[in-house]
Design brief:
CATH architecture of the domain at 5-93 and 162-243: 3-Layer(aba) Sandwich
Pfam families: ABC_tran
Strand order of the largest sheet: 6-7-8-3-9-10
Keywords: Amino-acid transport, ATP-binding, Cell membrane, Membrane, Nucleotide-binding, Transport
Low-confidence stretches: none
Catalytic activity: a polar amino acid(out) + ATP + H2O = a polar amino acid(in) + ADP + phosphate + H(+)
Protein name: ABC-type polar-amino-acid transporter
Distance between the termini: 35 Å
EC number: 7.4.2.1
Bound molecules: adenosine-5'-diphosphate, magnesium ion
Strand content: 25-35%
Order of helices and strands: EEEHEEHEHHHEHEHEEHH
Largest sheet: 6 strands, mixed
CATH topology of the domain at 5-93 and 162-243: Rossmann fold
Length: 247
């Protein structure tokens, strides 16, 4: 693996009113790296993700993508949104569009790809997430796991530099979690740069290069999965792990 910094956060602070939701965050995600972010509910994980594609602004500090500060507006911001893919807990597919149309929309509208090219690429990606045979269906005709795989194909269709996953399996029935994690594991193996907020510790152990543990808006601990899970250093991480690993 190379160690070219792709996403860099330096002394990032953010408040929601009186709530200091990100406290002096320093984090580097290298190209090709998979960083899993874990931590208690309310610790700022989603906010952290959202600042990286500027769905949220920050109060101080700096975020850089590929050595460039995040753009604030205009075409550069649109470009940023295609460079930084996002997969949410709640799939967010367009209900009145087919699976294929959901995946081709961004490339045609934002990247100005011709329909034929966008559709050919979309079909490749739908095959890659193992759902090519559902291309003409509507989201409501698919299971949650299938819909989330469409959302992943849709993110990939923009040829992003990095994909942020915010609890991508939390809304799924248990039997559908694995098919989504398998697709994400494949992406990781293929060298996609990924930031993944998840409670799936098996995935973290298997796929992560690094685990970042957040609590109360701070990065409390950052380590290899092996070290983190067998030997958490902080009391907060020990406490968190004992709660989620024993239920
Ligand atoms: N838009 C918002 N306005 C006000 N408070 C928010 C907003 N979004 C999140 N928060 C608060 O910020 C804190 C961190 O939220 P979040 O980033 O969603 O945490 P996590 O994803 O780790 O559960 C929580 O206390 C949450 O209630
Ligand atoms: Mg969250």
């Amino acid at each position: 693996m190379t160690s070219t910094p792709l996403v860099v956060l330096e002394n990032v602070n953010k408040h929601f009113g009186d709530l200091h939701v990100l406290r002096d965050i320093n984090l580097t995600v290298n190209s090709g790296e998979v960083v899993v972010v874990i931590g208690p509910s309310g610790s700022g994980k989603s906010t952290l993700c959202r600042t990286i594609n500027r769905l949220e602004t920050i109060d101080s500090g700096e975020i850089r993508l590929d050595d460039q500060p995040l753009p604030a507006e205009g075409r550069a911001l649109a470009r940023l949104r295609s460079d930084v893919g996002m997969v949410f807990q709640s799939f967010n597919l367009f209900a009145h569009k087919t699976v294929l149309q959901n995946v081709t929309l961004g490339p045609m509208k934002v990247l100005r790809k011709p329909r034929g090219e966008a559709e050919a690429h979309a079909m490749e990606l739908l095959d890659r997430v193992r759902i090519g045979n559902q291309a003409q269906k509507y989201p409501a005709q698919l299971s949650g796991g299938q819909q989330q795989r469409v959302a992943i194909a849709r993110a990939l269709a923009m040829s992003p530099k990095v994909i942020l996953f915010d609890e991508p399996t939390s809304a799924l029935d248990p039997e559908m979690v694995q098919e989504v994690l398998d697709v994400m594991t494949d992406l990781a193996k293929d060298g996609m740069t990924m930031v993944v907020v998840t409670h799936e510790m098996g995935f973290a152990r298997r796929a992560a290069n690094r685990v970042v543990f957040m609590a109360d808006g701070e990065i409390v601990e950052e380590n290899t999965p092996d070290e983190f899970f067998t030997n958490p250093r902080s009391e907060r991480a020990q406490d968190f792990l004992s709660k989620i690993l024993t239920h």
